[in-house]
Batch of 4 targets.
Target 1
Amino acid sequence: MSIKPREVTFTSNHIQIAANLYTPHSTTAELTNRLPAIVVSHPFGGVKEQTAGLYATLLSQNGFITLAFDAAYQGSSGGEPRYLEDPSQRVEDIKSAVTYLTSLREVDPERIGALGICASGGYVPNAAQTDKRIKAVATISAADVGDLMRHGLGGTQSVEQLNAALEQSSKERTLEAQGQKPRLEHIVPNTPDDVTKDTPTLYAEGTDYYRTSRAAHPNSANWYVFRSLDLMVQFQAYALNELIAPRPLLCIAGDKADTLYYSERCIAAAKEPKELYKIKGATHIDLYDHYDPVLPKLSDFFEKNLK
């Protein structure tokens, strides 16, 4: 049964955040029975109407109240400059989403979980390290954008390349102060024609997902502010993962994903209870919308730990 979300807003560091709240149909008739809730956070470059909204819908159909939101500077949310990727703000957005859920009379504030997809598979564990209101933590196709920007996918970027990029990123701050518009760069190749045989699977399949009818959305414009680089480089997603315990952690990833090592690192840095669940034959992007092998494990995890 399809569940139509309710459009809501909340604030995060004084920025208005746009979100979709999914409530199981039974809740409207049983408001005295508070339900568990799950924050669902989208990938780098994504918006709430794509994979985050899909999983929010599916989990809501299984009896959870869910909240999918656009990060600050992204989608329908506020914040300038547009398309800035600020990990510290992304983490704060997740914590603010939890705060919003605690304000709802239909939500049990002691039974709130969080799900992060792709880059949010770094942001959600990071938020949960210190926000103890998050009682269960899950990721799908996790990625640590800090490590990705420092070392490149699979460690393919040299220190010299990183320093050169940071030099330019620093110059962009000065240029903006002088009145120049922020420099924008594409996150993945902008059209299928821009994909070559040398394009890594993550980015080639990202183009297929974000830049075709598969999941294209007008609010997901495939841009990021180039000077976001210095903000991302400083971010270390899993540095304090041991603080998540004794709350449970589940990382779901395809065994063919070129980002699998991030899920492995997320788990390695955490204490029990924790689990790495691999989907046979799946790549990173596969799990954005091929949910059949994911949903039973994900739902069971939240059922056991929130219900």
Note: The beta strands are 6-12, 15-22, 35-41, 65-69, 107-117, 134-140, 184-186, 223-225, 249-254, 274-279.
Target 2
Amino acid sequence: MRILSVVLLLTSVVFAQTTGTDLPPGDNARIAEFYRLASQIQDKVWPGWSSTPAPLLLVTPDREFLTHYLEPPKEFAKIREDLYARPRQFPTTLLATFPAFGPPSVIVIGEPANTEAKTSTPWLFVVMHEHFHQLQDGQPGFYDRVKGLGLAHGDETGMWMLNFPFPYEKPALKTSFAKLRDLLLAALSETDQSKFGALAKQYAAERATFLGQLSVEDRKYLSFQLWKEGIARYVQIKCAEAAAGYEPTPEFRALPDYESFETYARRARQDTLDELKKADLADWKRVVVYSFGASEGLLLDRLNPQWKEGYFQNLFTLDPYFE
């Protein structure tokens, strides 16, 4: 019996050396908190969101850990139930969602300190942002319809979404964008409903003027980015606000960089509005779509509280809401 125990112990040591160690406790607490939080708030933020699969790949300096993926690729070794690992292949700074192993899309993200999130609580809501991309990507025919935009020009890697030659530095566009940005901020800050209505109409007219300066392809690209990345940032804000009264687990609260959800929720919206105030089309380029698109989502909440019902009927554009 003792010999059998020694054999089992040696076998477990060899197995651990072969497959890699388990998740570090901090990473385990963060990932578990994401799935727990999502289960409680996602349908409150966006109807029907909970039906979307949420596989996640955590990228650490040495290894990558995959969870909530039904059939992991062969290079992944099982660590424990619903957790698989392989040697690291992606950058530790990555923060993206894409069909890394074929559909469905996978959240591929580094540890907080290695990403723009920096600390655990913001990281958690960035993961919610990425989880919303999984809802977008999971729409019927999504990838074929993205291809149908005709914006890739032979790029099969998807990098055109980041590198599309939009005329950010065109002086007339920069000036028009600044005017549009300021109108959007003015409308969002207006508390008087009649004045808000007038500002919203002015904004819609100026928005049409701005978009009218773009070529067909440039307009399709900007509309796609606002629809996809801008609204994902909007969802990130709404998730933070929905979680203001959420009580995290003791393991998550024990993280050394823990910040209460209530504290983060109080500043999430204002941080995006402050970002938009500084947004410069020529200097920031594609980055402006995050704060700008999110702010359009906040504007739509006031203009038409049911706007989400038509979001997936008008793929890749918010234009119908402002016509």
Note: Residues 1-20 have pLDDT under 50 and may be disordered.
Target 3
Amino acid sequence: MKLPTTRAAQLAPPEPGQQPWLIEGLWSANSCGIVGGEPKIGKTFLALDLAVSVASGAPCLRRFQTPQAGRVLLFAAEDAPHVVRGRLQGIAHAAGIEFESLDIHVITVPALRLDRKDHQQALQATVAFHRPHLTVLDPFVRLHAIDENIAAEVAPLLAYLRSLQRNYRTAIALVHHARKGAAHERGGQALRGSSDLHAWGDSNLYLRRNGQQLQLSIEHRAAPSTDRLLLTLKINPPALALEVLDQSQAPAPTAQPSCLERVEQILAKARQPLTQKQVRDTVRMRTSDVGHALATLTAQGRVIKSADGYQLRPAC
């Protein structure tokens, strides 16, 4: 039996007045995506800023306009309710918004497991009841007991979230950790677990540190991306919120060592020859990059290769 088809010109056009953005330049309308970054870098602050902006219509990060204000559904698995309230209040104060007016509904169950059918059904019923413009789930690691590295286990969870997005027209922001030591990789490639997570997102936001600077990379499936926008966590009690940092206010960037320099620094600290695997495990780079760096340093005469491994050539 053949599959049904429709000529491209007969596909349904966009609805009149339909906005392509939930938050202009930051999050596409009715889209799924990842808020990613290493632990303790500010991912939750960024996700809560999305929530406050959508619930109020105020610009996200005091910069990105929000044309589609509406209800927000939030599950914060790692923070106590009073911590969630305090953070939301601080962001609302920074945005000049009355906290009591925010249409943010916080799911208060102690655990939500997307790999369990009964929990999936409960979340679906909650989304169907509240019809949120945005659903924030923070973080992914607390939402399951699967192996994140196995695509066959990750894919059904992402498919379930995609079905929520399509059936109830809710944008979904999934907070997820990047691997430790992956700061030199592209944001999506640095995410923990299966590459399906990166591929799943329509709009993805990645936080990383470069020296003392906090940088935001914005990635879209169907719109131009923005790389390395500078942010700062601004403290002005009771406000505590991320804000875009004007380039004129930004401190001079700290030069990052090259791949060759990093490998050379590791060998300089070693008291005995190191194998390529030992160098790779210490420097936390891809095997191909480490191999190329060692070959280059050896060819330049700066490193000696022996049966025991690699070591820095002693200074004459």
Note: The chain is about 30% helix and 25% strand.
Target 4
Amino acid sequence: MAFPDAFWAVGRYWAQPTTQIFTRLRVYGKDRIPSSGGVVLAINHFSWVDTVSFGAACPRTIYYVAKIEAYEIAPLAALIRAFGATPIRRGESDREAVRAMRRLVHDGNALGLFVEGTRQRAGVPGKAMPGAAMVALQEDVPVIAGAIHGSQTWKLGNFHPVSVAWGEPLRFDRLPRGGRGYREATIEIERRIRGLWEFLVEMHRLRRPHGVPPA
């Protein structure tokens, strides 16, 4: 067992209950996450609480990528390394990071990518970057789109409810491995994330009923 898997296995005993208590987390479509094999989890990003919320909402260890600036803070760097995060230079072409991401899914892991590249201050999903599509196409693995809602207004003290929805697996094996394929796949990933987020907005309006499959 890799160290991040062992760390997550132990962490789930406190991280999941703690996240559940403080975010009142509700998850839709968890059964859509494949139990094994390489997969790219393409997710949106509002708040620092998203990382633990998606982690608690996923039955598998998520190997995130993190902006390289986070590694300049020693305690935070130690924590995110323990969770298996890979550093990436935001806004730059980082070939080593891409190789590391490809290696993770090639080895059968679940790669977590905040596809917008940064938190969305407007409170709605933003434009997706091509990283998730690139890794999925180059390694021929599925993409699971995921959306979070509620974390954009969650703060310590108000504890607004947070929900996560997972989409059906997306395969892009008919697209070329190149610029055009990456663009088309990215457009579809962005569309799926937006649809899942709108589903969650509606679920919150309906007071988050149980057992409703995501759109």
Note: The chain is about 40% helix and 15% strand.
